[in-house]
């Protein structure tokens, strides 16, 4: 990377884009809604069950002009989902400002492990034990989505729910490879604790991205 590219990456004028695609939001509160996904490369949170490990090394993904990715996204759909990788590793101010100028509503999928940036209409916080969220995001998260890999994750979910604001929706989502074991436990938990809802990775059943 050249010095100029480094500077433009820090300012958010360039971003490492792993992929971008038009699909249906598969998870959480907006399940079923058409959205254009922008998946940024780079993550060091290290979830051993991560379903996009290819995203982790930012150097493997081409730097794109932020203005170009904003225009492509907005020309496909006005609902945008920023994901990764960990999108908050990057300065999201220019990208989100440009998407806003183009009339978009912007959602983010994040672990919250990095400082927030950008103009964000819907924040889905999916906290991880290996890289806990920064404190500020609990106050503004719209949706808490805890991944259930084993029984201890129910306790982690309850602890994280204590930290979010009162309006935040609460979701449990099974780790994909553990779904046959975990969904029965999760449905039981949700019926006993109805402030929680079940989230299913519906796009994996629909065979869409
Ligand atoms: C790939 S992550 C990218 C965004 C961000 N790094 C995060 O973890 O929120 C997108 C969503 O997929 C979830 N996820 C990742 N791997 C999963 C798996 N194997 N099973 C279920 N959900 C998974 C994450 O918890 C997160 O909610
Ligand atoms: N359809 C679809 N919905 C999703 N919701 C969150 C996703 C993500 O990887 O962040 C995702 C994804 O990869 N595909
Ligand atoms: S924080 Fe998100 S992208 Fe990073 S390893 Fe965990 S699930 Fe994967
Ligand atoms: Mg995914």
From TrEMBL:
Catalyzes the complex heterocyclic radical-mediated conversion of 6-carboxy-5,6,7,8-tetrahydropterin (CPH4) to 7-carboxy-7-deazaguanine (CDG), a step common to the biosynthetic pathways of all 7-deazapurine-containing compounds. It comes from Halpernia frigidisoli. Pathway: Purine metabolism; 7-cyano-7-deazaguanine biosynthesis. It holds the Pfam family Radical_SAM. S-adenosyl-L-methionine binds at residues 49-51, 85, 126-128. Homodimer. Signal peptide: none annotated. This is 7-carboxy-7-deazaguanine synthase. The keyword Cell division does not apply. Residues 30-209 form the Radical SAM core domain. Its EC number is 4.3.99.3. It catalyses: 6-carboxy-5,6,7,8-tetrahydropterin + H(+) = 7-carboxy-7-carbaguanine + NH4(+). Its cofactor is [4Fe-4S] cluster; S-adenosyl-L-methionine; Mg(2+). GO terms for molecular function: 4 iron, 4 sulfur cluster binding; carbon-nitrogen lyase activity; magnesium ion binding; S-adenosyl-L-methionine binding. One of its GO terms (biological process) is tRNA queuosine(34) biosynthetic process. Keywords: 4Fe-4S, Iron, Iron-sulfur, Lyase, Magnesium, Metal-binding, Queuosine biosynthesis, S-adenosyl-L-methionine. Binds 1 [4Fe-4S] cluster. The cluster is coordinated with 3 cysteines and an exchangeable S-adenosyl-L-methionine.
């Amino acid at each position: 990377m050249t010095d100029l590219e480094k500077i433009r990456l820090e300012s958010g004028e360039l971003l490492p884009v792993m992929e971008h695609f038009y699909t249906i939001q598969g998870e959480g509160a907006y399940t079923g809604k058409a959205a254009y996904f922008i998946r940024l490369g780079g993550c060091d949170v290290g979830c051993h069950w991560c379903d996009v490990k290819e995203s982790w090394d930012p150097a493997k993904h081409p730097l794109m002009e932020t203005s170009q990715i904003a225009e492509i996204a907005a020309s496909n759909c006005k609902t945008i989902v920023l994901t990764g990788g960990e999108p908050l590793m990057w300065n999201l101010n220019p990208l989100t400002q440009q998407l806003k100028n183009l009339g978009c509503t912007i959602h983010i999928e994040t672990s919250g492990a990095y400082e927030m940036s950008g103009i964000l209409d819907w924040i889905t916080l999916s906290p991880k034990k290996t890289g806990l969220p920064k404190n500020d995001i609990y106050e503004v998260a719209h949706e808490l989505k805890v991944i259930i890999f084993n029984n201890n994750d129910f306790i982690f979910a309850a602890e994280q729910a204590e930290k979010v604001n009162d309006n935040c929706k609460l979701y449990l989502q099974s780790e994909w490879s553990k779904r046959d074991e975990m969904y029965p436990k999760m449905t039981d938990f949700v019926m006993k604790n109805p402030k929680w809802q079940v989230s299913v990775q519906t796009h994996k059943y629909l065979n869409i991205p």
